[in-house]
Amino acid sequence: MTPELVVPARSEAAARRAPWALMYHSVGGVAHDPYQVTVSPDRLARQLRWLSRRGLTGVSMRELLAARAQGRAARLVGLTFDDGYADFLTEAVPLLHEYGHTATVFVLAGRLGGDNAWDPDGPRKPLLDAAGVLAAQSAGMEIGSHGLLHRDLTALGDAELAAETADSRGRLAEITGSAPGGFCFPYGAVDARTVRAARRAGYAYACAVDPGPLAGPYALPRTYVGERDTSARLHAKRALHRLRGPRLADPPPPAPTPPRTPADGTAPTATRTATPTPSRAPSDPASGSAPRPRPTAPSREDT
User: Fold this and answer.
1) Is 201 left (phi over 0), alpha (psi -120 to 50) or beta?
2) 182 and 275 Cβ atoms separated by less than 8 Å
3) DSSP class of 298
4) What is the share, in percent, of the chain residues with pLDDT greater than 70?
5) What is the Cβ-side half-sphere exposure of residue 13, based on CA atoms within 13 angstroms?
6) What is the Cα–Cα distance from 48 to 32, expressed in whole angstroms?
7) How far apart are CA 225 and CA 196, in angstroms?
8) Which pLDDT score is estimated for 220?
9) What is the DSSP letter of 283?
10) Bridge-partner residues for 216, per DSSP?
């Protein structure tokens, strides 16, 4: 049975407002970073220090959502690292420990020990292998799934979508000993169908970037953070979230089951449903997401 995130009774606005979650990717050198997915260790340290000095604690999405369900998430911020780069363990984890924070790292179960082949114009960056995933877990970090190969899930058929969501969860369970509770949509590309797939796969939550009206437990919005984000920019982004942060809708209902044929043998009446428009990450880094290129064909494997 899929676990649900239950929010206790309080003001409707407070109960439904999305918690603040930050989205990182790689931590390392930024000399050649065409996709703006890397922050330097020095910049990350300054950003984590900024949180601490304001009485904010960075936590995993699992901890953030559990605290939100209990009404005690006001001083917590979700910290997420997409793609599962090897530098998460060598660069990010020591800094997280130094400033008293934790985080969720979303890894690609089909690319463990590989590299970011989905970014053709960027430098090759190694990804965590199985031993690195276990080391991150032992360091107190939450392990989440980013799918298998980092593809735009809205462009996949049903079988491939199930593999990216459910099969990736099973592979990570074999490594860590427990199935991950969180999923993260590659590229922030999400529609009602992929939201249902994440829920059906057994996750407790799923992260997007700017999911628009789909915002909910299975399409949680996040704020992009990059090398250019100084203390002033972080302050502005936090203020914007507190002012205009989305409220979370209820998760979509399960996909409808095919109508049964009546006993008299007559054909059932077909019901037409509108095809939802996928929600994608914005192109302006200040608005929430780094400008990542989209795959030009469904066969393209991306982050």
Assistant:
1) alpha
2) no
3) T
4) 77
5) 4
6) 23
7) 28
8) 97
9) S
10) 219
Residue with tokens 């130094």: 98
What six digits make up the tokens of 190?
């999400």
Distance CA(89)–CA(104), nearest Å, equals 12
pLDDT digits (tens, 9 = 90+) for 183-203: 999 999 999 999 999 999 999
Asked whether 28 and 42 are in contact (CB, 8 A), the reply is: no
Nearest to 220 by CA among 255, 182, 258: 182
Query: Residue for token digits 């970011």?
Result: 116
Q: Whose CA is closest to 145, among 162, 158, 159, 157?
A: 162
In the chain, what are the helix, strand and coil shares in percent, each to the nearest 5? 35, 15, 50
Residue type for position 16: R
- Please count the CA atoms within 13 angstroms of the CA of 118 that sit on its side-chain side: 25
- Per DSSP, the residues of 235-271 read HHHHHHHHHHPPBPPPPPPPPPPPPPPPTT-PPPPP-
pTM of this structure: 0.81
Contact 284, 291 (CB under 8 A): yes
* pLDDT 10s digits, 20-43: 999 999 999 988 999 999 999 999
Which pair of structure tokens corresponds to residue 59? 């936590």
- Which of 97, 99, 147 has its CA nearest to residue 127? 147
- 170-186 burial, b at 16+ Cβ within 10 Å, e below that, comes to ebbbebbeebbbbbbbb
Residue with tokens 């799918």: 147
Which spans in the chain are helix H? 12-16, 41-53, 61-69, 87, 93-98, 130-138, 158-162, 168-176, 192-200, 231-244
Predicted confidence (pLDDT) per residue in 243-292, tens digit: 888 888 655 555 554 454 444 555 444 433 344 445 554 444 444 444 45
